[in-house]
Amino acid sequence: MNPATALATVLVDELVRCGLTDVVLAPGSRSAPLALALYEQSRVRLHVRIDERSAAFLALGMAKRSGRPVAVVCTSGTAAVNFHPAVVEAHESGLPLLVLTADRPPELRETGANQTIDQVKLYGSAVRWSCEVGTPEERPGMVAYWRSLASRAWHVALDPDPGPVHLNVAFREPLIPDGDESWCEPLDGDAGGPWTKVRAATPGSVLHVPPTRRGVLVVGDGAVNVKRYVAMASMAGWPVLAEPNGNARYGDHALSAHHFLLGVPEFAERYRPEVVVTLGKPGLSRPLLSYLRRAEEHVVVAPSLARWPDPVRSATQVAQEAEIPVVSGDDAWLKGWRTADLVARGAVDRVLDESSELTEPRLARDLVSAMPGGSLLLAAASMPIRDLDQTMHPRRGIRILANRGASGIDGLVSTAIGAALAHGNRSYALLGDLAFLHDQNGLIIGPQDHRPDLAIIVVNNAGGGIFSLLPQAAFSEPFERVFGTPHQVDMASVAAAHGIPYARLEVMEDLAKVMTTEGLRIVEARTDRAANAALHARMREAAHDAVRASLGV
Fold this sequence. Notes:
Helix content is 37%, strand content 16%. The chain is α/β, with parallel strands linked by helices. The chain has 3 domains: 3-193, Rossmann fold; 207-340, Rossmann fold (3-Layer(aba) Sandwich); 360-526, Rossmann fold. The model has no long low-confidence stretch (mean pLDDT 92).
């Protein structure tokens, strides 16, 4: 089966599973895959109109009367522009329209190719959501993406504020079925139901998670109602896998080495969950993201049904509220997790404590352990927050933040100062040298402006340390120039230029000394990128070996 036919077939099928009953089609060539898939779909009423403007308003009228999403489909170019008046009316009237515009693939755009215009975010702010679907390819994972996307589009059009949703679908030729029915993965979804079930927070709509001891609570960035869900998970006998900035890594059920545990295939298979409940947006650990795919049931708890986090497209249900039931019985599930976690954490700690040398992961671990109660820590979105994720022991009484919405390097000094001013208590920032230098202007504070009690700890490894842990490091000749980006900036001079106290952290034993001073100050910790990459490899190897030994494999 060619990719255009596969995408159209799956997209139409998933929208029907969500509840789509009516589609208006304005004929054209580039939209042929969608037109043929709709023609073959017996569960929808297909309405054909030759005028795109009329087609869109026909769909709008049906949506106005039924209160249900109606899809309208067209080809590329000015055909899509003619939908705009109806899209604006749907936006202002709060009517659920699904606007599917076919498009040329990216390589034909801005080339003068026939019937090709810029259709990305064509309708501006007049839609609740606009998505460039992407040109379909035959590779594993596409079906989950397409079905999850269709489910999201359907529910965004409906809740909580109904309105139009735009999916721009680029197709490469061939545009018609080629007679080959094979594909690299099954195109089918769940039997009869939508890929993702969504429940709004209306009276009596709280989602009751299936009772099981083999459950896991995952807490990522931006999680809300954390204490409530941690308490429920504890009562249910579930382990809590919390990223540091999820602020749920505390208590007896919190683990600290799940990144390493889930990197051991034998462990991940033996402790395959029946249910995973996710709060916030996880994204620091690839093994954790891979683990989410293993759950038979993956419940995402999201405050907004217009935007729910599901980076691996594995969510089976989405709800604004969920209830985790207490289950009595054997606690071997939790004991197994905790035993393996202690084994892996012990192995990592031994590697870090081999010497008093200052290293990046040890600095992250010891900084969190030494922070006074009530303190705040902002960690850069690249290596510092990942070092915390891999080394931080569970503890209470602190707040950890990170700009993981878009995970950018920009504005971190200013973010840290702003967070510290709002916090009003002892605060710390753990930044890499490039992140610090990227926002030097954040240090410009007028003489009459408030200054926070903030220690900005700069891990200076003379460049982009995270790239040394990525596949780019294998390209030794261009690496330093285009990834490592070394610099020769003197941090003490930067501090002096802004009139900010400066200290150099030489060995780990001096950490307590630099933490006890007050006011806005800069603390530099120099490390080596190559040594840091080797240390991370030793940590991973030691943890994996220890876990395998504990499993008897």
